[in-house]
Input
Amino acid sequence: MRYLAIYDMDKTITAAPTWTRFLIAAAKRRAPWRLALFPAVGVAGLGYLLKLTDRVGLKQFSQRLLLGGALTPAEMAAVAEAFAEHEATHGVLHGARERIAADRAQGYRIVMATASHGYYAAAIARRLGIDDVIATEAKRDGQGRILSLIEGDNCYGPVKLQRIESWMAGQGIPRGSAHIRAYSDHVSDAPMLAWADEGYAVNAHGPLQKLAVEKGWPLFDWR
Output
């Protein structure tokens, strides 16, 4: 039997969402003048709320505006590592650290599954001793530069579960031979929580709290 503990990142492991803060930190480091464009990100966010664009479109537009159309791997690594260092030091919830350590001590393989971009999520994960990361990935051009475009689908909702299942297949882990714990703060991860042998609602917002009571998923508060 294989034992997996799968953690969402934003507001499950971290105290706050990371994407916008990453973009702001990266823009400050690379091109502070781009911060003057930030109000346009807010307008795009309103467009998302009005269903004029989707999460993929919003992510791609925001990244292009604040980071530019393409970064070399070295350029992206510089901003991602700097952000991850600060986030791992100041933004990770103590309760999350304790639970990760407890799962690891019980023999669980720790996996991060997040809609955040892999280039900085993996850097945060490494600082927490998490080696396996399933995340949204960016397209690259012919020169290997990281583009503001998303490769495939945003790792969110049902797509996240599909990506986890694909990762397990690639790792040679049949579902029937694995005992799985899953942790998330958001109702969009209900497919993952229901699929797991043990689903945990962590720092849950209202809709997930309600669903957790209906489904019998334990509620944790690590804030």
Notes: The chain is about 50% helix and 20% strand. The chain has a mean pLDDT of 96. The chain has one domain: 2-16+79-220. The first strand starts at residue 2 and ends at 7.
